[in-house]
Amino acid sequence: MAKIIDPYGAELPEDYAKVIKDFGLEEFKVDDFPEPNRLMRRGIVFAGRDLKIISKCIKEKKPFYVLSGIMPTNDKIHFGNKQVVENIRYFQDHGAKAYILVADLEAAAARGVSLEEGKRRALEFHIPAYLALGLDPKKTVFYFQSENKEVVHLAYGFAKKITLNEFRAIYGNADPGRIMSAVTQVGDILYPQLEERRPGIIPVGIDQDPHIRLTRDIVDRTKDKKFFRPSGLYHKYTPSLDGSLKMSKSKPESCIVLPEDVKSAQKKLKRALTGGRETVEIQKKMGGEPEKCMVFEMHKQHLIEDDKELQDIYKKCKSGTLLCGECKDIACSKMERFMQDFEKGIEKARKQVDKLNFVKFA
């Protein structure tokens, strides 16, 4: 049976090393990128496609772009969005021009969200949330899919360059809605190159690789070589607090969303799966197992920026001098600070929205 990563499904990869091998990805090498961010340093960013091209652009100060999308299906985001924004900001800080598209057409087609409601959610919440998480507005271009006729024209042309069998080989399913969504995303990914042919990188979760793979295949078939093949950068999922692979809003008791009431988030952290032993006495003697601990994973991925501080918690856990309750208290304190800063950041960013660089279409 063909191997499929399905961006529309619920099945998730258990073995990231196997994913790299099965889908021809390249392992992320942190030494190739100057001043790597927290996600890069700690192995959360684990793979990609054509990463050396982007590394070369950074080192030689050549133009490139970074692109991501907002799906305005509700007024909440998750920690995976936070990871994407942090990686966008990294590339902005190292010379990239950023493009943020609001996928209002896809939200309307897939989730029944009206264009008006999608626009409201994007302007009042999603875009301010991205700014609050660190997106640099001075280096970002924004647009709505529904207003971008150039993306629609690109998608129409690209649709003629792929067969149904090829689509099934990538996505596993070729229903009309998926085809329309996928070719529109190809148009989005390549839209920045209408301005200038240049490399671009798309930072996403691994489940979005099929869109990048399809785009690269289509570029290879474009005879006039008008486009560069886009690069991909893939991060691991933030695990659910119950220990399953990915935080999901379908399991609210083990998923922290943004924004969320601080006390609610802290309550979930208190109940999270840990790497603790059967008793306090055994843990003091044998040490804990931070590799199995979802609280430590939150420290590692999101709550602790300083590598020495993280290493100190790891060592104290392994030695049995830091117990699970104390570690959870640390996490709760840091989560409270993060949520407070996030809320303040959103309020400040809402005042900036009308000053942002939105593409205007005739």
Which helices and strands, and how do they pair?
Elements: H1 16-22, E1 26-27, H2 38-41, E2 45-49, H3 51-60, E3 65-70, H4 79-93, E4 97-102, H5 104-111, H6 115-132, E5 140-144, H7 149-159, H8 164-171, H9 176-190, E6 200-205, H10 209-221, E7 231-235, H11 262-270, H12 280-286, H13 294-303, H14 307-319, H15 324-350
Parallel strand pairs: 3-4, 3-6, 4-5, 6-7
Antiparallel strand pairs: 1-2, 2-7
Which percent range fits the helix content?
A: 40-55%
Domain count: the total is: 2
Number of strands: 7
Described by the principal axes of the CA atoms, the overall outline is globular
Main CATH class of the largest domain: Alpha Beta
The main pleated sheet reads as: 7 strands, mixed
Spans with pLDDT under 50 lasting ≥5 residues?
1-12
CATH architecture field of the largest domain: 3-Layer(aba) Sandwich
Q: What is the typical, i.e. mean, pLDDT?
A: 92
Which value, in Å, is the CA radius of gyration?
21 Å
Strand content: 5-15%
The secondary-structure class comes to alpha/beta
Distance between the termini: 47 Å
Count of helical regions: 15
Overview of the structural elements:
48% of the residues lie in helices and 10% in strands. β3 (65-70), α4 (79-93) and β4 form a beta-alpha-beta unit. α6 (115-132) packs across α15 (324-350) and α7 packs across α9 (176-190). The chain has two domains: 16-237, 3-Layer(aba) Sandwich (Rossmann fold), CATH 3.40.50; 252-346, Tyrosyl-Transfer RNA Synthetase, CATH 1.10.240. With 362 residues, it is an alpha/beta fold. A seven-stranded mixed β-sheet has the order 1-2-7-6-3-4-5, with helices on both faces. The chain contains 15 helices and seven strands. It has helices at residues 16-22, 38-41, 51-60, 79-93, 104-111, 115-132, 149-159, 164-171, 176-190, 209-221, 262-270, 280-286, 294-303, 307-319, 324-350, and strands at 26-27, 45-49, 65-70, 97-102, 140-144, 200-205, 231-235.
